[in-house]
Design a protein that fits this description.
heterodimer, A: four-stranded antiparallel beta sheet, 10 strands, B: alpha/beta, Rossmann fold, six-stranded mixed beta sheet, four-stranded antiparallel beta sheet
Chain lengths: 256, 270
């Protein structure tokens, strides 16, 4: 594999109120899932957006660089080419007046794929994410699809872009339990079959247990713990990780 | 006498517009449930199973096409005047969408006090006091009363939303996916507070959700809906196992408690 690691070094994000995220290092490898966890407001979603330089107005990345296999690259060259982004609310990520086929065409055109080749690639990617009625789905608009289907469509677009890395910010928080399980099965399939490298931002330790290889814990804008997933579940070192694990264990049935 | 009695209700909607072909969509069929004071009942089902419609019928927001919902012995679709007011005070509903449930131009305290202004005889000082008690009960602070909805986080706003539902000390609270958007830590905190309320003041709860782990933690009984019918109705205990396909699916969808990938695959360290 030519491109195998994507690294973020020393990310700092500042707003009017001061420093919101500081000194965040992340390392993504192809074929691996790195989970970024923390409670609400810990800065995990900001770090994910900051990685691609997609911060909302009023916030700025004042420090930090991206390395692809050790070579520094500007975020604009990473975005959509090296790493795609999947957000929590898929409904707002689509253009309401354009159908799914038109979104797909746009993505494929950027890669120079047009005409019948584009049509074939669309069908292939939609099938890969389990959207089997591809003809119908491609003709629909965002409001005509369920949240789970839109989330899968976002992944299909990421597949069409053929980016080796995927950043997913709470991808299943708005889905019901069954859609969530299906989505995570699909994601893990892509990691194992296509060597996708994933940054999974979540607050659900169940999602972490299901998917993650490495876990990075954030609290108040900083990384407080970094461990392989088994180590984290067996010996959480930070208070933030312990709080998350405790709630997870009580709600899933057997207290620690 | 049971607090809430749902007697063989059915409900449906006419679909299709001016031009489309009209047909009848049966959403609920043959539903019977009894709920006692101080009981917590889980209504479990996947999207489109009819659980939210059932929630609306419980509150008398719609009248079932057949069958009856009776609360404390009275048919809820026939209540008028003071009896209707009593019913509104006795039953409260909380939805998932907290930002949409608050007036964006009014303070949180004003919104929480709204049911008190309409449904209680409290004067303004007593109302203020009650609002502060409620905020505290839900783990919020006094200063939150002064804030506008957009100045609170999603979790804080949903707690304020539940505080408002509890303002008039209802006998029954229906939570329609009210905890689904919150993180696990917050879900647990809220369920613990509601559990305390249930024990202390005998408030009954109906928890509408697709998340089996919340039902297992909070509810004493669970009703499983599929395509508008009750397919299972059983007590929640340590050995909860569903026999119906949908229940088994939901059970299988519960995320693992511990990582199950082989540890060897995770040995590479960052």
């Amino acid at each position: 594999m030519a491109r195998s690691t994507l690294e973020l070094q020393g990310l700092r994000i500042e707003g009017r109120a001061g420093v919101l995220v500081d000194d965040v290092d992340l390392q993504l490898r192809r074929g691996e899932v790195c989970a970024l966890v923390g409670s609400s407001g810990s800065g995990k979603s900001l770090s994910c957006l900051g990685l691609l330089d997609l911060l909302p107005a009023g916030l700025a990345r004042t420090h930090g660089q991206l390395l692809l296999d050790g070579q520094p690259l500007p975020a604009a060259q990473i975005r959509g080419r090296v790493a795609s982004l999947v957000l929590q609310n898929p409904r707002s990520a689509f253009n309401p007046v354009r159908n799914m086929a038109s979104h797909a065409q746009e993505t494929l055109q950027l890669r120079g794929i047009v005409g019948t080749a584009a049509g074939a690639r669309m069908v292939q990617c939609l099938e890969a994410v389990g959207l089997d009625e591809h003809e119908r789905v491609l003709q629909t608009y965002a409001f005509q699809l369920s949240g789970g289907m839109l989330q899968r469509m976002m992944i299909a677009l990421a597949l069409m872009a053929e980016s080796p890395f995927l950043l997913a910010d709470e991808p299943t928080s708005d889905l019901d339990a069954l859609s969530q399980a299906r989505f995570l099965d699909l994601l893990m399939n892509l990691v194992q079959q296509h060597g996708l490298g994933v940054l999974l931002v979540t607050h659900d330790m169940g999602v972490v247990a299901r998917c993650a290889d490495q876990v990075v814990v954030m609290d108040a804008g900083r990384i407080v713990e970094r461990q392989a997933v088994h180590g984290l579940f067996d010996r959480p070192a930070s208070a933030a990780a312990r709080t998350l694990l405790e709630a997870h264990q009580i709600l899933t049935g057997s207290p620690p | 006498m049971s607090l809430l009695h749902i007697d063989n209700i059915g409900h449906g909607y006419r679909t299709g517009g001016l031009l489309g072909r009209r047909h009848w969509l049966q959403v609920l069929d043959g539903i019977s449930i009894e709920l006692q004071a101080g009981q917590s009942l889980g209504l479990l089902g996947s999207s489109g199973s009819g659980k939210s419609t059932l929630g609306r019928l419980l509150l008398g927001l719609e009248k079932p096409t057949h069958g009856h919902v009776t609360f404390a012995g009275q048919d809820v679709s026939r209540l008028r005047g003071p009896q209707a007011r009593d019913f509104q005070r006795a039953v409260q509903l909380v939805f998932q969408d907290a930002p949409g449930a608050f007036n964006p131009q009014r303070s949180i305290g004003w919104s929480i006090a709204e049911p008190l202004r309409h449904l209680s005889g409290l004067d303004s000082t007593a109302r203020e006091q009650r609002v502060l008690t409620l905020l505290q009960q839900m783990g919020l602070r006094e200063e939150h009363a002064e804030r506008l909805p957009h100045q609170l986080s999603g979790g804080q706003l949903q707690r304020a939303n539940i505080a408002r539902a509890l303002a008039v000390s209802p006998q029954l609270v229906v939570l329609d996916e009210a905890l689904s958007n919150l993180d696990r830590v917050l879900q647990l905190q809220l369920l613990q507070r509601l559990e305390m309320l249930r024990r202390e003041s005998g408030t009954a709860f109906v928890l509408i959700t697709h998340d089996l782990s919340l039902v297992r933690y909070f509810c004493q009984r669970v009703v499983l809906l599929d395509a508008g019918r009750i397919v299972e109705d059983r007590p929640v205990d340590g050995s909860l196992r569903f026999a119906h396909g949908v229940g088994k699916q939901l059970q299988a969808a519960v995320l693992p408690q511990r990582p199950f990938k082989p540890e060897a695959a995770n040995q590479r360290t960052g």
